[in-house]
Amino acid sequence: MTRPARALIDLAALRHNYALARQRHGERVLAVLKANAYGHGAVRCAQALADSADGFAVAFLDEAPVLREAGLQAPLLVLEGAFSERELEAVSARGLWTVVHHEDQVRMIEQAPAAVRGLHVWLKIDSGMHRAGLAPQAVRDAHARLVASDKVSRITLMSHFACADEPDARLTHEQLAVFDAATKGLPGERSISNSAGVLAWPGANRNWARPGILLYGANPVPGNQEALRPVMHLQSEVFAERVLEAGDTLGYGATFTADRRTRIGLVAIGYADGYPRRAQTGTPVAVGGRITRTVGRVSMDMMTVDLSDLPGEGVGSPVELWGAQVPVNEVATHAGMISYELLCNVKRVPLVYSDDAAA
Ligand SMILES: *Cc1c(COP(=O)(O)O)cnc(C)c1O
Questions:
Q1: pLDDT, tens only, 219-251
Q2: CA of 79 to the centre of ligand 1 (A)
Q3: Quick check: CB of 195 below 6 Å from ligand 1?
Q4: Most CB atoms within 10 A, among 10, 151, 270, 271?
């Protein structure tokens, strides 16, 4: 290690959160590992869940081979489906499950070469998010064509929520009603809930849930008290300190001006590691296990924290940017971002894995 900075990934916490999702949802749960498991390392996360997970999901076909090569046998769903006939052939050859969410993908299956067969299609219905998915009135026809294509051995009916992180959102009630009406009487299993659905909309539980962010311990539902455990602990150290006199400014843009004698610690991590440059002065950060605040602008390779009220802390003190002491959601709020962005953006720092329940 060239400098004190790392993202400690607590795999026991990941398993805890998966088990909680399963318990809340009641039925089977696909662990969403897209975007390198939201920055946590897809292969290691998949391996940690291999004994417990009912299956996994990635966004794109390119994300699948590395998981299969790492020995993962479980069902693996490609959430965006095939982008071309070649991708459809690869989906079939690798035994992946694939989402079909627009007309071109239905046609692609109808016209696929003979080698494509036995597909498990997740037919996605646009129940009101109006992003991806077949219109409710097009579902029965698409379903019949997939069955008639001879390429499909199983169809699961799915949809996706736009506002499940808002308690009692009208749109979520409407989406459920639209989904149930559009799929009424059609055979096959159902899947609706993402993390927010699992946590806040028990009425959306069907045969499969597809949580992502909750597995990584960031609750997407404001105020929800579920006992999720943070998986990523972004850590560094104070490596230098200095004292500002009242009136001194600090850092790029001189955005911070000391209003009193202020002791500043320099921390060996910056926006090139994924800590958000947009985090304002006052963003919580833990030094030596106690909460203080960031001051001034975050630089590419370092950032500055206020040590004035932490007389025992200085060079060598451990710093947690987010994790058990500083919820990633709080950092996100101070940066005008969401936890998803922060976690996915982590780079350059080594991912260090721990499988110890106490980590
Ligand atoms: C990313 C994604 C999920 C997981 O969403 P979270 O909010 O992280 O739980 C579920 N379903 C689909 C279709 C997705 O694209």
A1: 999 999 999 999 999 999 999 999 999 999 999
A2: 9
A3: yes
A4: 10
In a domain, 73, yes or no: yes
Which residues are known catalytic residues?
34, 252
Ligand 1 pocket check for 194: Cβ under 6 Å: yes
- Per the structure, the complete domain to which residue 85 belongs is given by 11-216
Domain containing residue 18: CATH number: 3.20.20.10
**d(C-alpha 127, C-alpha 182), whole Å:** 9
pLDDT in tens, 103-132: 999 999 999 999 999 999 999 999 999 999
- Binding site membership of 160 for ligand 1 (Cβ less than 6 Å): yes
| Domain co-membership, 312 together with 171 | no
Whether residue 191 contacts residue 158, with contact meaning beta carbons closer than 8 Å, is answered with yes
Longest Cα separation, the chain: 77
Which atom in ligand 1 lies closest to the alpha carbon of residue 38? Answer: 8
Do residues 133 and 65 both lie within one domain?
yes
Instruction: Look at strands 152-158 and 190-191 and give their pairing.
Output: parallel
